[in-house]
Amino acid sequence: LLMILGYVGLGLTSEISLPLLHLVYIGGFALITLMISTRVTLAHGPQNTAPELDSKAIVMTFLFFGLAALFRVFAGTSLTSLFLSLSIFLFIAALLTWSIRFLKELLRF
Question: What are the mean pLDDT values of the chain's consecutive 10-residue runs (109 residues total)?
């Protein structure tokens, strides 16, 4: 979703926008890292795919990523804005939410 929003935004503007490029980059990075990590974590444990399908932590992770992306776009090119700080905080919160949820799965066996 972040990658699509970034590309759509770049298509709608006549100039290259750093915040929109960040959406594409961070969206791709998050997609690759978290989805592969989730599948590997669950595949090497005694679990089936149910934790992927009905996990509130994954929903919260995506919500945090979406809000982080939104704040990143609002931050523009400012490196000291409140929006950029909130974006960074929400990105870290998303990673922590995912990590806490799936560390429980790994430590269970």
Answer: 68 70 74 74 65 75 86 78 86 86 69
Q: Where does residue 11 rank: exposed (0-12), middle (13-18), buried (19+ CB within 10 A)?
A: exposed
Would you call 94 helix, strand, or coil by DSSP? helix
Closest CA to 76 of 3, 4, 15, 1: 15
Measured between alpha carbons, how far is 20 from 5 in angstroms, rounded to an integer?
Answer: 8
pLDDT at 2: 64
Instruction: Give the pLDDT score at 59.
Output: 84
Instruction: Decide: residue 10, CB within 10 A, 0-12 exposed, 13-18 middle, 19+ buried.
Output: middle
HSE-up of 18 (CA within 13 Å, CB side)?
8
- Strand, coil or helix: 43: helix
One-letter amino acid at 92 equals I
